[in-house]
Design brief:
7 strands, alpha/beta
Length: 235
């Protein structure tokens, strides 16, 4: 994996969207348990929101060696209770190991063979375990920004459900950030920006995400610019 290099430039830009990370991580935490792999951990910006000490073990897995060095540094700075192992590579690098939870946070859309990736995750999952995916939603919102940071696609319920491995069952699926969907639509059809500004992200995180927290409940998870899928493995 020494030749892998992440092409996106957005990780630091999105590292400080605290309301958004707090929101989706709170929705995912009930599904996280046991021995956990956070695949494509990047700079480790999501890890403190997810790893609150409830897991038995935590592996931050990142294929880009340059990001791994920053990841190690960031993990060392996290508060007690967030201790985790940092590994450079993919699931194939963790030969012979099985896990209870495998998480992909804004990662699966970067993988060309997404169906094969979930099949590999299923093969590393213990009985009763889960695979969790958070990804950008709706292909009609695909922009120059998606292309610039290495996205192959965005998902909807049908396309994400089609990835279900044969030995897993789809446990939950819902959309997040219904208010943000309007902003994404405006950018897609009006602004056509290739990268959001820090000021725009601050406005979205401070004012729009709290609105989505309320609206998403009203919409029962049927509307949003991000999508969550949770798969389980029968015991």
């Amino acid at each position: 994996m020494s030749g892998f290099k992440y092409v996106g430039q957005e990780l630091e830009l999105f590292a400080n969207v605290h309301n958004w990370k707090s929101y989706w991580s709170a929705r995912l935490k009930p599904f996280i348990a046991g021995d956990v792999v956070e695949a494509g951990a990047g700079l480790g910006a999501n890890t403190p929101y997810l790893n609150r000490g409830g897991a038995r073990s935590w592996v931050c897995l990142e294929p880009d060696p340059a990001l791994v060095e920053e990841l190690k540094h960031n993990v060392e700075r996290t508060e007690p209770g967030c201790e985790c192992e940092v590994a450079c590579g993919t699931l194939e690098s963790l030969a012979g190991r099985e896990f209870d939870t495998i998480i992909y946070i804004d990662v699966l859309e970067h993988i060309e063979d997404d169906k094969g990736e979930l099949q590999r995750a299923a093969s590393r999952l213990r009985s009763g375990g889960r695979v969790i995916v958070l990804s950008p939603a709706h292909q009609f919102l695909f922009t120059e920004f998606d292309a610039a940071i290495g996205h192959y696609r965005r998902y909807n319920r049908a396309s994400l459900k089609k990835l279900t491995p044969a030995n897993l069952y789809l446990e939950e699926m819902w959309y997040l950030d219904s208010a943000g969907l309007l902003l994404s639509g405006a950018n897609r059809f009006l602004l056509r920006q290739s990268m959001p500004t820090e000021a725009q992200l601050r406005v979205w995180d401070r004012w729009v995400v709290p609105v989505s927290r309320t609206l998403d409940r009203c919409w029962f998870g049927q509307v949003g610019k991000s999508i969550v899928g949770v798969w389980g493995k029968k015991g």
